[in-house]
Design goal:
Number of strands: 18
Structural class: alpha/beta
Shape: globular
Distance between the termini: 57 Å
CATH class of the largest domain: Alpha Beta
CATH superfamily of the largest domain: Response regulator
CATH topology of the largest domain: Rossmann fold
Number of helices: 16
Strand order of the largest sheet: 2-3-1-4-5-6
Length: 486
């Protein structure tokens, strides 16, 4: 009889400095599939759940479909939302009594009033199924891993890439590893190391220094006999939690080998810590350089307003300078009111952006232009390397084009610029734009690095500030981390 395996999870990267609370509606709006709706939604997609489904089939496992829910990165998840989702997953686990569990987690979720929230979910599942049923979970490279999550699961498998492209592969690996645990009835030795170190997204790209060397060493570690999985969680800097920061997890049949290899990876990261300091360009200088003639777009990267890091995506510092200098290109802003107001109009004039945190992200900016695209409730399917096949809601969308050729894309939902499909969907061909503003850390590279003639990381204020010493952390454990502590 084929082993029965529950697939479920909650995915959220929580920015505790963001004022945008994440309620149950936010999960329903972005990613929500349960029961018999799970496979039709995610089968064949480059997502953890898609990989788990494929891996389970290849390994001869029978899938018990649970709930997978995800919300766009934002502020803390409400306790009510967490209780509803965790209760559903744990309840199904208790009812179905599966032979094993696959959990698709992010690892940086923060729930109001719940410490180490991803671990709290895994613990509820563990309590529902008992100590003898194996749990294998995936986590994002930006996870803030703590000991409670390591204790609750038999194995953790983290992404190996940023920008993220291996979600499906890690899901498949999780299913394969779980099948192995079920077949031989053993549990792997586990090693967990936490580093007192905070790094920011634009310095975490795994194909560039310093992370390229770290990930090469991870590959060497996993080739050692007795070592099965070694993963690096670079951490998510914008969470004021005690377990913030870099971590390394390792699993295998030879505890001594796993400890040795994990220690080697940790040592390499610590030696390279000064290489994780970001370099930023002032807004005026970046826009001035972008205005110089050339072939292909210049990407102005605004990590402090990184939508994929929980920022609102309505910061106006770069927009204001583009307007002042009359530089053409494209900038995407989250502004539901302005987007709705532009629907059905041929012209738009009014303030946009700056509605969430004007003192930090900039005040609204007055724009005027032709409405060249306007549709309610826009959705698209990702066709790039990130989460391929995933459906994305944009909400009401309007594109306002100024007389000097600046496209201001107003969206009703916050949109992460991890593909170029969101621009093509609204009639903009990115390669033809002189300037592209990406509210992102490093993930923008999936969409735009191949067409960019230059890119500048812009120094603006925001809840995803590149200089973490500007942020109002309250936890003493955070203040003991580098770069706060030398």
């Amino acid at each position: 009889m084929r082993p029965r395996v529950l697939i479920a999870g909650i995915w959220h990267e929580t920015n505790t400095f963001s004022p945008i609370r994440t309620d149950l509606a936010a999960f329903h709006a972005y990613q929500w599939a349960e029961g018999e709706g799970l496979a039709p939604r995610y089968a064949g997609t480059n997502t953890e759940v898609g990989g788990m489904l494929a891996g389970a089939e290849a390994a001869g496992l029978t899938v018990v479909p649970g709930l997978f829910a995800g919300a766009i990165p934002s502020g803390p998840v409400t306790r009510d939302a967490f209780e509803a989702m965790a209760g559903l997953i744990a309840g199904l686990a208790a009812e179905e009594r599966p032979d094993g569990v696959l959990l698709a987690l992010h690892g940086a979720m923060v729930v109001e009033g719940v410490e180490q929230s991803d671990a709290a979910l895994a613990r509820r599942v563990r309590d529902a199924i008992g100590p003898d049923i194996p749990i294998v979970a995936t986590y994002d490279l930006h996870a803030n891993i703590g000991p409670a999550l390591v204790d609750a699961c038999d194995m953790l498998i983290g992404y190996d890439t940023f920008p993220h492209t291996d979600m499906g592969a890690r899901g498949e690996e999780a299913a394969r590893r779980l099948a192995g645990l079920l077949a031989d009835g053993t549990r792997p030795a586990k090693v967990f190391r936490k580093l007192a170190m905070i790094t920011v997204p634009q310095m975490q790209a795994t194909a560039e220094a310093p992370m390229a060397g770290v990930m090469a060493r991870v590959g060497e570690a996993e080739a050692v006999p007795g070592v099965d999985v070694v993963s690096v969680a670079q951490g998510f800097a914008y969470a004021d939690v005690d377990h913030l920061g870099v971590a390394v997890t390792g699993y295998g049949t030879d505890l001594v080998a796993v400890e040795r290899e994990v220690s080697a990876v940790v040592d390499m990261i610590e030696r390279a810590r000064d290489d994780f300091r970001p370099t930023l360009v002032p807004v005026a200088d970046a826009v001035s350089r972008a205005a110089e003639p050339g072939d292909g777009p210049v990407v102005l990267v605004e990590p402090a307003d990184n939508v994929g890091g929980g920022a609102p995506g309505d910061g106006t510092a770069v927009l204001a300078e583009l307007m002042r200098r009359e530089v053409g290109g494209t900038v995407v802003l989250w502004d539901p009111a302005a987007a709705s107001a532009a629907l059905g109009q041929s012209r738009f004039r009014g303030p946009v952006g700056g509605r969430t945190l004007p003192d930090l992200h900039g005040p609204p900016v007055e724009i005027a232009g032709d409405v060249v695209f306007a549709e309610p409730s826009v959705r698209y399917i990702r066709d790039g390397a990130y989460m391929t096949g995933q459906e994305v809601p944009m909400g009401d969308v309007a594109v306002v084009r100024t007389t000097f050729g600046l496209n201001v894309v107003l969206t009703g939902e916050r949109v992460m610029p991890f593909d170029d499909t969101h621009l093509r969907r609204v009639g903009i061909e990115p390669a033809r734009e002189p300037v592209l503003v990406a509210k992102s850390g490093s993930a923008w590279k999936i969409a735009f690095e191949g067409i960019a003639r230059a890119a500048f990381v812009v120094d603006t204020g925001g809840v995803c500030a590149s200089d973490v010493t500007r942020l109002p952390y309250t936890r003493a454990a955070v203040r003991r981390c580098w770069p706060f502590a030398g």
